[in-house]
Write a structure and sequence with these properties.
30% of the residues lie in helices and 23% in strands. The strands form four sheets. The protein has an eight-stranded mixed β-sheet with strand order 1-2-8-3-9-16-10-15, sandwiched between helices.
Length: 411
């Protein structure tokens, strides 16, 4: 099984599927459909006859129920096809460190890139594993092609082993998750599931039922432009105003200075000329109250700075991105409890976790499809140091199979 899931993974990561937040189309990049088409072909080959790619780039497929019970809930297993725009995903060259025996891993394509045990202590738990990395010049794409490979391998295993009884399982592969649009066009009626699980997590054995809540903020500043030779007492440079705002942000509320349950204010982009400037921020916290407090802080800083520029103006726009799925999942405890049991049956000690980020499941939960997150085994996402263990991917495959069995048994 490990070879099967790893072979699939190696096939998928070489297909460039980066999403693009600047694009307004869905999917944001047509190249995501290249992976979608391959997945449909493979699903059809293993005997899933309704597999198809829709106009938005989503892949839908069904593993039919094979149990005499008619009360087994329909579960959806979900992963996303796109990779993050943060680092190049073009021309990925995966490497396998066979039978890893410890120590730092220097990547051959860029020897300055080193996966250090001091930075990634999970490596101490992977002695004897086969570890897949990129060559150091691109990200690997384990986020979330590991999840895709695991779902595909589990689907094939269930199809080939009809003695394993299970209810109907819906497969969903999404686009544009990395830019916050992963489920914008999902047809829940067509999906027809009672609840779901994303395979988009990290360490083996982890089940996550809590995410950040997330908003985006755009600050647009209109300054006073004038020829610099005649600017005395008149110019109000929008770029300088924007810089003053950033300089006043509290350093203890940044991603690089927070951990655990602490949220943050994070500037993600700036454009500007003398006359106008635009700042983009993401705000993160585990509670709605925490989000609103940070947004109020950011706007108060902006107002204070603007007092020194009486001829200038600003707009402050908040856009909701996603909310903490724990609010929904706490009302449906059996969804997480059955995942915990599946992880245990797959030979691991289950670990409940919270995500300092979001998944497609965050949005799906509030759309009416409660959807916690299960580990996929990858680490160091969105970077050239990304890696995943073949054996941990195999454990994820077993977890999906056991999950299907648990729901059938307990129905």
């Amino acid at each position: 099984m490990a070879a099967s899931v790893t072979d699939r993974f190696l096939r998928y990561v070489v297909i460039d599927t980066q999403s693009d937040a600047k694009s307004q189309s869905q999917p944001s990049t047509e190249k995501q459909k290249n992976l979608g088409r391959l997945l449909v072909e493979e699903l059809l080959e293993i005997g899933i006859s309704d597999a198809h790619l829709d106009e938005h780039g989503y892949v839908y497929a069904t593993i039919p129920s094979n149990t005499p019970k008619n009360n087994v809930p329909v579960i959806c297993i979900c992963a996303h096809m796109d990779t993050a725009p943060d680092f190049s995903g073009t021309n990925v060259k995966p490497q396998i460190v066979k039978n890893y025996q410890g120590g730092d891993i220097r990547l051959p394509g860029d020897t300055n890139q080193v996966i250090r045990v001091s930075d990634h202590p999970v490596l101490k738990d992977l002695i004897g594993h086969d570890i897949v990395t990129s060559d150091g010049t691109t990200l690997l794409g384990a986020d979330d092609k590991a999840g895709i490979a695991e779902i595909m391998a589990a689907a094939e295993f269930l199809i080939n082993n009809p003695d394993i009884k299970h209810g109907t399982i819906r497969i969903l592969f999404t686009t544009d998750e990395e830019i916050g649009r992963g489920v914008d066009k999902v047809d829940l009626k067509k999906l027809g599931a009672d609840f779901g699980y994303t395979l988009d997590g990290e360490t083996a054995g982890t089940i996550e039922d809590e995410t950040f809540s997330a908003d985006a903020v755009e600050i647009a500043i209109k300054g006073v432009a004038i020829h610099p030779g005649f600017a005395y007492g008149k110019m109000e440079n929008a770029i300088r105003i924007a810089g003053d705002i950033i300089a006043r942000l509290p350093r203890d509320k940044a991603p690089e200075t927070t951990k655990g349950r602490d949220g943050f204010i994070h500037p993600t982009g700036v454009t500007g000329v003398m006359e106008k400037a635009n700042w983009s921020f993401i705000i993160r916290d585990f509670t709605e109250e925490g989000l609103k407090t940070k947004e109020a802080l950011l706007e108060n800083i902006t107002k204070e700075v603007m007092k020194a520029y009486p001829g200038s103006s600003y707009t402050f726009t908040v856009k909701e991105q996603y909310r903490n799925m724990k609010v929904v999942l706490d009302k449906n405890p059996e969804i997480v409890e059955n995942a915990v049991e599946a992880v245990r049956r797959a030979g691991m000690e289950p670990v409940r976790g919270s995500i300092r980020g979001g998944t497609d499941g965050s949005r799906l939960s509030f759309m009416g499809l409660p959807c916690p997150n299960i580990f996929a085994g990858g680490h160091a996402f969105h970077s050239p140091l990304e890696f995943v263990s073949s054996q941990d991917m195999e454990k994820a495959v077993k977890t999906v199979v056991e999950l299907a069995k648990v729901w059938e048994e307990r129905a």
